[in-house]
Amino acid sequence: MIQFLLDNEIRRIDSYDPTQTVLEWLREDQCRTGTKEGCAEGDCGACTVVIGELIDDIVRYRAVNACIFFLPMLDGKELVTVETLGAARNLHPVQQAMADGNGTQCGFCTPGFVMSLFARYQQTDPALPDQTDDVLAGNLCRCTGYAPIQKAAESLRPSETHTGKFGGPETLAALKSIQPSRMTDSVYHDPNFETERHYFAPRTEAELLDLLAQHPDATLVAGATDVGLWVTKQHRLLQTTISLHQINQLQTMEQNGADLRIGAMVRYSDAWAKLQSLHPDLGELVRRLGSVQVRNSGTIGGNIANGSPIGDMPPPLIALSSRLELAGPDGVRVLPLEDFFLDYGKQDLRPGEYVRAVRVPSLAPGTLFRTYKISKRFNQDISALCGAFAIEVEDGHVTGARIAFGGLAGTPKRAEACEAALIGAPWHEDTIDRGVDAMRDDFTPLTDMRASRDYRMKTAQNLLRKVFLESRAENRTRILQAT
Known about the structure:
The protein folds into 3 domains: 2-177, Beta-grasp domain (Ubiquitin-like (UB roll), Roll); 184-249, Uridine Diphospho-n-acetylenolpyruvylglucosamine Reductase, domain 2, CATH 3.30.43; 250-476, CO dehydrogenase flavoprotein, C-terminal domain (Enolase-like, domain 1, 2-Layer Sandwich), CATH 3.30.390.50. The chain is 33% helix and 24% strand. The chain has 483 residues and is of the alpha+beta class. The model has no long low-confidence stretch (mean pLDDT 93).
């Protein structure tokens, strides 16, 4: 059984399809059609709903994409939809602002915009960006009615108290009463395929290890931002799923000496500020890799475990010499992150193992660090390639270099020949030319719908030149400031 709040009522569901999306449940089972389906892949925001989660004795509200958020992931949480906010004669302030400002045209995308703005209005999510454009970047309007929507958003005054319908004492008490106290273990008798499908939500790593021993072929679900597409786009039937969202041990983030240790279930939105403090380029990369809705569901550990060659986080983490914690029946082993990716679609996971955490070292003083994401659309788009550079320069010579790319090979990969061409040489344009030439020995890119082979290689080479030119410009600025 799962329990969650909807319209201030506790909903209890005994039998459920473990990969039914919240969007499907709302529209098909509850006839709540305010939440729309646009893309079914977490890109357009028409399906945006808000999840209320009990954190540190307050209800924290976050916008998520209902089209790739599985129903059992609501267990112990509050679900807020556009119908929850208000009706025609009793509009919520966000709805009223949209109506007064003519912030709607055909109306299809409007509920999603309203829900994104509602999450901002509640002021309980410290990871939300300051700029309205960033808050709404994950909501697309095909009528291009953005100007009145933005004006409506800017007219809103965020709520200062949460003692009423949302986040007040009644909501707090109700959420406390439905927090899971033991592992969720359910069997769904699928009438469409005449089969049994299993769903587990362990609460401890020990329970997870036992489940992996019993179900070695189970699909692990973190934020479901990728697994959700397996279901909605590829129509995969997942026989056994193990959701990790109830394991608090995997949701911690802490500074261990020089390392920032990020648990596998830490969401991008929660890690954003810490990564930003390591280097501004990391913060900008997280801002661009997905919308607020995606960052509120997706996890860094899930992105790594998925092993996509165009995942955005592995290249900068590899350049920073990050190490990966893998836990299994024989204990915890730690390996350099780049060693985890063996081949396309294949990672170094032994039977019964799972990604536990990633350890990100602090930048050594004087290290030149840059990371660049290249995509057709600047925001909320999959990369054609992503490059990361950590270069140490002392007395005008390169003493160390770690350069990693995604999108140039079947896995995220270091440019070792390029690194070797740089190390020991003067930090000079001639050295950069040698590094650019050596890069051809590191990669043989493919041509696909996102970019051609030649474009990928030329762009990767030019990113190295960009690092050099930016470093020279910074040096000139420092000299001018000193004089």
